[in-house]
Amino acid sequence: MIIDNFFRIDKSIELGESKVFERPVRSVVKSISWRIIGTLDTIVIAWFITEEVGMALTIGSIEFFTKMFLYFFHERAWNIIKWGKK
């Protein structure tokens, strides 16, 4: 099933004689770290536009969760795609 491919361990990356395994938890950690950076950027932009700290934090907190969720599945989908892998 397609959804099973999102959570499997990828074994397609090979470096020298050893293989590198990328697990879904790595995608989760990458999602969180990237969202922290992206959310801080969104909060600053929202604060600049609205001139309200509360509104900027509200926008940033909603954006944090929605985009982290989207990024995780985007990352897993790209791990399934064979294009550009050797």
Describe this entry's structure for a reader.
It is elongated and about 50 Å long. The longest helix is centred in the last third of the chain and has 28 residues, at 53-80. The mean pLDDT is 80. The protein has a two-stranded antiparallel ribbon. A hairpin with a 2-residue loop joins β1 (10-15) and β2. The chain has 86 residues and is α+β, with helices and mostly antiparallel strands. The chain has helices at residues 2-6, 24-50, 53-80; strands at 10-15, 18-22. α2 (24-50) runs antiparallel to α3.
Derived from helix and strand composition plus strand pairing, the structural class reads alpha+beta
Number of strands: 2
How much of the sequence lies in strands comes to 5-15%
Q: If helices are DSSP runs of H or I spanning 4 or more residues, what is the number of helices?
A: 3
The 3D shape can be described as elongated
Overall pLDDT level = 80
- Name the poorly predicted regions: none
Gyration radius, in Å: 17 Å
Largest sheet: 2 strands, antiparallel
The run of helices and strands is HEEHH
